[in-house]
Amino acid sequence: MDSYSLIYFEKPKGVISNWEYFWYQIPYGAPGILTFVVGLFLSYFAFQKFRKSKEDNRYFHLNLTISFISFGCVGLVLTTRAWIQDVETLVLWNDLLYFLVAPLAPTAFYLAYHMTGKQSKLLLYYSYVCWFASFVLYLGVILGKGFETTVFEFPFGKYPRGSAFVRPWGILAPLGYFLLILPSFIKHYQYIRKHYHLTLFHGVNLLFLLTTLNAPSILGFKVYPGGFFLFIPMLLVAYGVFRSDFFDVNELLFQKNGMFYFLFALLSFVLIFISFGVSFGLSPNAYESAKWYPWGIPPVISVFGAVFLSIIVAGANPSARINQLCAFALILTGFYVIQSVPLKLNISYVVQLRISQMTFVAFAFAPSIMVRLVFEAIGQKSPVWLQGIDFLCITAAILAPSPYLFVGYFDYPWSRVHHGGPAELLVGANGAIALVLVLFTFIRNKGYINFASKWIIGSFLLSALLLLAALLPSHGIPIYPIADFQFIPAFLLGYAVLRHGALSLEGRTIQLSQRLANLGLITMAIAAILYFPLIREQYGVGESAFHLTMIVLPLVLFNYLVVYIMSRPLAEELDISYFLLDLEKQKADEEREKALIAQDKAEEAREESEKLLLNILPYKVAQELKTKGSVNPVRFENATVLFTDFKGFTKVAEGMDEQSLIEELDACFTQFDEIILRNNLEKLKTIGDSYMCAGGLPVENRTSAIDACLAALEIQSFMNQLKEIKSALNLPFWELRLGIHTGPVVAGVVGRFKFAYDIWGDTVNTASRMESGGETGKINVSKDTYELVKYFFETEYRGKIHGKNKGDLDMYFVHRLRPRYSQDPDGKAPNQYFREVYARISRGANIRWKKES
């Protein structure tokens, strides 16, 4: 086997071009970009909170919005100092960006003033002083005297000195923090702890401390500025402010499609960067003595194939967690393979190195995302050991821009390959650990994993093996990196997830998106055809085709991406418009039908009498009575009976007049009627303050126990809300006991002049015992009902009760829907997945339940 010598990476001495300087300095400025992005992201949510907040909090959220923007721009300013070599250009950008940085001090002091309960007036007055200093800074920038061209030069960048217009602003913020904010926070610590989450307290303090750590570099000391890492305290502040509102991570990422938009924003930047980078950054020399053919073809297919699949999978159902995790995994796979393409070209090694480092920052999280995807696919909660994988991922991502990722390269016949350092070995070891643990989980649960989930796990295992094989050439073993063929597991993964989850897009949405995407595709194809002869003069035929592919394909994918983002809301609005038109048409038909009915009084009278009959009897029973003149008793083997009873009804009723009592009781029972109607139950009768209904009759079904539990959750929720309202008004209130039992009953119609549909049997007695043996505000069910609903609802065994002629009966409390079936945090309303399983049970399917994790 041939051996290849290791070539170490060294920075050249002497003067280098601005372009080379940028590539050498990328790791130093990268944290500032992250701070800037986090600042923009959080300012958007703070602004949304500002729009919805009450008058007392509007100034707080407005200052929070401006503060996030300002602190984010601090990161951008520091990045310009790391990346820009030309001093005049650097000073210009610092002058411009300080227009956005200047509000940092006054808004931060106002936030601190608000956190102390507006008790420290000095903080408010000091914020006014900082605003004055900010306007002085603005004046200096406008006059062109903001920053001087004299700079301090460090390995991590060039730092211009601030003029007399800027220095007061730079001194006031740290001075005010130590003299005013810190003492005020200590004095009012108990108030802050009582009214705010401690992460907000720590975040504000850390914001000032890290900003203060910019001072040594500005004063000429070789200390890396703490402002690069302001994204950490900004996230703490955001969590402290938003944690009890809409800033729930699961809701933000999935229900509000936050992950969908974040992934596509990230993809948009990467695709545009690739297209413009190839167009303006690659010269014909890049293809001379290079290995772009045929070695560059597999990674190009892998990159763009993974990105295309991520767009399709994520766009298919943005709110589905499994779709978003799959899209994320595909993107991270694409990120890894991106770095393989430049290694096939004849370009500066520093460019190849920096691209690889940037991609590894994202790719380091691949084990964490893939493991989550696997456990989501098999319907289990994330295991505890995943926290260890997460920690290793974060560590690897932090080390990726450092010299510890790669220490040089080998020059193989197919391409250059980076020589892996400790950070690359950490990524590989983390992936291997995740591979082994997922394989162990698969073997332990393979009997309960469906076909599509096995495909997902298989694609993960194949991808991990290909990636681990890439460690061999990175440590001197001359084997072609088969990780370039990641498009194979990527296509398997995309197919498996699309097979696993439902496509939520309506037909009109798909049609509109596809037509818009095709229009953009045709436009770019024409542009590519026109552009091809121009580059053909500089490149050979193969090089021209490869070059054009690298320019056009990212734009094609960007076109699809934008279409999915922009057309989806538009298409949904169109669907709503069509739906409203259908409703209007239905209303017109109803009006026409009413007019016809009005012309035929006899028909109207007949329909009214039939309607009255249906109010007394179920439809099927009423039809039988009309047809035969009588109703035969019917036995139902699996009916579910629900009883309710008000605790303390007599005591509360004694303090009410007759009219109020009847109105109150009627209001409650009317609400109960609407709830059971929505949940496919039949009202049977009321006896005083007791209410009785049943499911699974007069038409048998397989969901009566589930229907009764859903109705019970709604009834108890309604009674709890009523209790809160009554308590707030200091009015007496009723509390409800509710019992449910499932079993055989006989149903029929009794009476000749006043019909009544009723049921008989021991099941009725047992349901009544469940109610009387329950607790107020709780749903008490029998063991028979529990066995039918336990996979859908969170339950609690609560003991036994003696049943006449039945011995001791087991009882259970039903608390809420399980989280995987619920669309709300309280577990009251079922989600789409619940409805899909429910529909399958209704149609007669036998569900094979997975073991609970």
State mean pLDDT (0 to 100 scale): 82
Number of helices: 30
Report the sheet-strand fraction: 5-15%
Oligomeric grouping of the chains? single chain
Structural class: alpha+beta
Taken from the alpha-carbon principal axes, the silhouette is globular
Main beta sheet: strand number and arrangement?
8 strands, mixed
Whole-number radius of gyration?
Answer: 34 Å
Helix content: 55-70%
Work out the number of β strands: 13
Alpha-carbon distance between the two ends? 49 Å
- Uncertain residue ranges: 246-250, 502-507
Domain Guanylate cyclase: 640-771
Subcellular location: Membrane
Protein name: Adenylate/guanylate cyclase domain-containing protein
Family: Belongs to the adenylyl cyclase class-4/guanylyl cyclase family.
At a glance:
By secondary structure, this protein is an alpha+beta fold. The protein is built from 30 helices and 13 strands.
Keywords:
853 residues, alpha+beta, eight-stranded mixed β-sheet, three-stranded antiparallel β-sheet, 13 strands, nucleotide-binding
Structure description:
By secondary structure, the chain is of the alpha+beta class. It has 30 helices and 13 strands. The strands form 3 sheets. Strands 6, 7, 8, 9, 10, 11, 12 and 13 form an 8-stranded mixed sheet that branches. The chain has a 3-stranded antiparallel sheet with strand order 1-4-5. The protein has a two-stranded antiparallel sheet with strand order 2-3. It is found in: Membrane.
